[in-house]
Design a protein that fits this description.
The complex is a heterodimer.
Chain A lengths: L4 H26 L10 E2 L15 E4 L5 E8 L2 E3 L2 E4 L4 E8 L4 E5 L4 E5 L3 E8 L4 E6 L12 E6 L1
Parallel strand pairs in A: 3-6, 5-11
Antiparallel strand pairs in A: 1-9, 2-3, 3-4, 6-9, 7-8, 10-11
Chain B lengths: L3 H35 L12 H32 L7 H22 L17 H31 L7 H31 L8 H29 L12 H14 L16 H13 L2 H20 L5 H6 L6 H23 L12 H31 L6 H27 L15 H4 L2 H30 L28 H25 L12
Helix pairs in contact in B: 1-2, 1-3, 1-12, 1-15, 2-3, 2-4, 2-5, 2-12, 3-4, 4-5, 5-6, 5-7, 5-16, 6-12, 6-16, 7-9, 7-16, 11-12, 11-13, 12-13, 12-15, 13-15
The chains are: A alpha+beta, B mainly alpha.
């Protein structure tokens, strides 16, 4: 099969681009540990309110000074509806859903994950800048989906 | 060449498919323009307006009905015209009736408000079981069309031993072979959803349904793109007196798309629990691989432009581009679509990028991306190809070709404006699939509002464009008395004299390789889900 000389160069260029992109992603993943959320823990979606630690959603301080925040997503709200965290703190969010699929998204941060009934998803963020953050559901979950949001205050 | 009566009988089947498709895009655009304005803070939605029901209709009509009926119509057309024979049209009609019955069934459940689940119908949102049954019938109808095309391939090979399958039929057959493999995923998902929606099973494994859906959902996108490539490689060169750049490379492109379209779906599930990051990384890699046939296509298209320009004594980039027939609505549709595809391709690389997807996942950036791809190269090429097909199907010259040209340009500018504002608003954090994005005046939401207004304006241009299309399409049927010959000529490859390598002719062997690749890509993540069966969600109706 004859392949034109310029076409070979073009394919080489395209493949090199892809290799460069993949290298960047690989370095970010394996050296800087930047990975998408992949929570592997399961939970009975019909018994979320009785299952610790989701029986008391909210902020918990760990021994090492970082925080974990437990969230329950349900139609059409998040529990807790407001969360106050000290500026500069590193927070790991754990989220599950007790009914349908919801989204868990804080614009202007790197928190973006799906809340799936039957699973606990998790992601970590350090809140350097004080202010009021919007936490919103970004997956269609029903008639009141646009009203499903919460507040995070960083002081 | 088949007899005139025979041509007319074949044409009626194709007209049924193509006009169903264009009816879907026209209706879908009407719903779309309402959504655009409903999302703005200035206009908002009237109390009676059910945003999510309309959004479901818009998504189903555009993503599943418009595209699918057009590709079945186009593929039947190119197959019938390339392989003339005395043929039964039972399969073509049977496929169409199944698809129409399924579409009608799903549309009625949506209109009645019993299936406000959007076109992705994510469980455990629980729609009327007839919505899932209807969607399944639509898919089964496309399988009938697929087998009609494969039967014609077999007929050709039986009666022309040693001859190479015409390039355009090879492309159509590869497209439907890929589609057959990909739709197994959604049919498997329906196998879980239908008994559950009827109440025969008590719960649903949510992650399993999502994995089945996206096994199908991304190749769905490539099904559209292969339809557009079919037009770019085989029809568009005839508009500027050029040739398809290379027969062998075109076949290679379609084979690569057949192989690589399916093992990529998990890049839609990066933000989900239950799938280890290793599998997500693997699907990043394979998604990058499927960019390669598009690289080849970009080269082939420009090479074909340049060869045609050189033959007319035009040299250089500007002279080449200027020598193209931009005033021809058929070329204009595809040509402007190609420009939009460059933007779409860059955005796609971001979405597929494992960690970078965190910035844009489920924001309106994604909506901007798929509008500038399926609504750009795909829809514009299809509309342009409709202007090419309609005279060949009806024997009537296109009515108001200058309106047709205006339509493609209006669509291009409308799409540029709308997709730019959506991409940008998405980077600022505006979510997709949300009826209003004011969030009680939250500070973060303020920056999105002007962009929502701009997106609505773009949407209005798109709506006006599709109305123009409908006027030309209907006008050609009822108004125009001028006749035109119905013969369809496809572009010949520039390297037609060179023999097509044998390994590029084995359609079904490559299909078997495609199945192996799909199994390899999914055996890990699927096994991970199935090894420890999870909790089932009972499901509910939340609308």
């Amino acid at each position: 099969m004859h392949v034109h000389k310029y076409e070979r160069w073009w394919m080489l260029f395209g493949t090199c681009m892809l290799v460069v992109f993949l290298t960047i992603i690989g370095v970010a993943a394996f050296l800087d540990n930047i990975n998408p959320p992949s929570g592997m823990q399961r939970i009975d979606p019909t018994r979320v309110a009785q299952t610790p630690p989701f029986d008391s959603p909210g902020l918990h301080k760990r021994a090492d000074g970082t925080y974990e925040a437990y969230y329950v997503a349900q139609v059409f709200s998040f529990t807790p509806a407001t969360l106050t965290v000290p500026a500069g703190s590193r927070v790991t969010f754990y989220v599950t859903s007790s009914d349908v699929v919801h989204g868990f998204f804080i614009p202007n941060t790197a928190i973006n994950m799906m809340a799936i009934p039957g699973w606990v998803n998790e992601q970590t963020h350090t809140f350097d800048r004080p202010g009021e953050y919007l936490l919103l559901c970004h997956e269609y979950c029903g008639i009141g989906h646009q009203n499903m949001f919460a507040k995070i205050e960083v002081r | 060449m088949a007899s005139d009566a025979q041509l007319r009988r074949e044409n009626r089947v194709v007209i049924a498919h193509v006009y169903t498709s264009t009816a879907a895009i026209a209706l879908g655009a009407v719903f779309g323009v309402f959504q655009g304005f409903a999302r703005t803070s200035v206009f908002g939605a009237p109390a009676w307006f059910d945003y999510y029901r309309i959004l479901t209709l818009h998504g189903v009509l555009m993503a599943l009905v418009f595209t699918t009926f057009f590709i079945t119509g186009l593929s039947l057309f190119v197959t019938y015209r390339s392989i003339p024979r005395a043929r039964s049209l039972t399969m073509g009609w049977f496929g169409w009736w199944l698809m129409v019955a399924g579409t009608a069934m799903a549309a009625v459940t949506i209109l009645m408000g019993d299936a406000t689940v959007l076109y992705t119908f994510y469980a455990p949102l629980k729609a009327s079981p007839w919505f899932y049954v209807g969607a399944t019938l639509l898919i089964l109808g496309t399988w009938v069309v697929a087998f009609e095309i494969f039967e014609n391939v077999a007929y050709f090979r039986r009666n022309n031993p040693g001859a190479v399958l015409p390039l355009v039929v090879f492309g159509a057959a590869a497209t439907f072979l890929m589609w057959l493999i990909a739709t197994l995923g959604v049919v498997a998902e329906m196998g879980l959803l239908i008994p559950w929606a009827f109440g025969w099973t008590k719960g649903i494994d949510v992650m399993l349904t999502r994995m089945f859906f996206w096994y199908f959902g991304h190749p769905l996108v490539y099904f559209w793109i292969m339809g557009a490539y079919l037009i770019w490689y085989n029809i568009i060169p005839t508009r500027y007196g050029g040739n398809t750049f290379s027969d062998a490379l075109t076949r290679l492109t379609f084979i690569m798309l057949l192989l690589l379209s399916t093992p990529v779906g998990i890049h839609h599930e990066f933000m989900e629990p239950g799938i280890s990051s290793g599998w997500k990384m693997l699907h990043t890699l394979t998604t990058y691989g499927v960019a390669i046939p598009s690289f080849i296509t970009a080269f082939a298209i420009f090479a074909s432009f340049e060869l045609a320009a050189l033959a007319r004594g035009k040299r250089g980039f500007i002279a080449t581009v200027a020598s193209l027939p931009w005033n021809d609505p058929v070329f204009s549709g595809a040509g402007l679509g190609m420009i939009l595809f460059i933007i779409g391709g860059f955005g796609g690389l971001v979405n597929a990028s494992y960690s970078m997807d965190t910035l844009v996942h489920n924001t309106i950036w994604i909506v901007g991306h798929f509008h500038v791809t399926v609504g750009g190269p795909v829809a514009l090429s299809f509309l342009g190809a409709a202007y090419w097909m309609i005279p060949r199907l009806t024997g009537r010259a296109l009515w108001k070709p200058e309106w047709a040209l205006f339509q493609t340009r209006l669509w291009f500018f409308g799409m540029l404006i709308m997709s730019f504002s959506m991409h940008f608003a998405g980077l600022l954090g505006a979510p997709r699939r949300t009826a209003e994005v004011g969030y009680m005046g939250a500070a973060a939401a303020q920056a999105w509002q002007p962009l929502m207004l701009l997106a609505a304006a773009g949407g209005f241009f798109l709506f006006a464009s599709i109305i123009t299309f409908a006027i030309v399409a209907i006008g050609t049927l009822v108004q125009n008395e001028k006749t035109e010959p119905m013969d369809a000529v496809f572009a010949t490859p520039a390297d037609a004299a060179a023999p097509t390598p044998g390994f590029l002719q084995h359609l079904y062997r490559w299909g078997a390789v495609a199945i192996v690749l799909a199994v390899l890509a999914y055996v890990g993540p699927l096994g991970e889900l199935l090894r420890h069966p999870g909790y089932l969600a009972p499901g509910m109706r939340t609308w």
